[in-house]
Specification:
5 helices, Aminopeptidase, 7-stranded mixed beta sheet
Amino acid sequence: MYWYLPWAWTLSFWEEWLRPADTVAEPLAADDVEWAAALHSQAFSQPWSGDEFAALLSQRGTFGYVVRRSGAVRPLGVVLARLAAGEAEILTIVVDKAARGKGFGRLLMDNTLQHLHAERAESLFLEVEETNAPALKLYRHLRFEEVGRRPAYYTAPDGTKQNALILKRTLGPS
């Protein structure tokens, strides 16, 4: 199934029609790192700087995507991932607060999965805050399964610690 129906894990027919037509996903470029840092600061209490995004993006096996309105400079979302020895991980994914719930996270994940399919990756891991219901819904829809837990992994804006779930998606033959 992995190689026979590669679109089976990408956007469904209906989701393609529901997303705004003027939206594009493009590879994350050096020009995008400051925008990525600004988006990251909306969602994380310890956000990454543009320099940190640039350093990660320059590492072998690291790639990312941005989603934006056609012709716009400012991205609405960003994902950064790394692939090594057939195993991939989402380093971070974030969508602008004003643009959440509109399919942009799904578009970022679909582009990431397409990239990993082309690279013949076998699995994809990520961590997600256990209380992030919209993200968990998306990941479960994309057939991720819980494989572990990291206690007190995230720090909330009020200083409390939040657990992370470790999720895995099998992509190819194992």
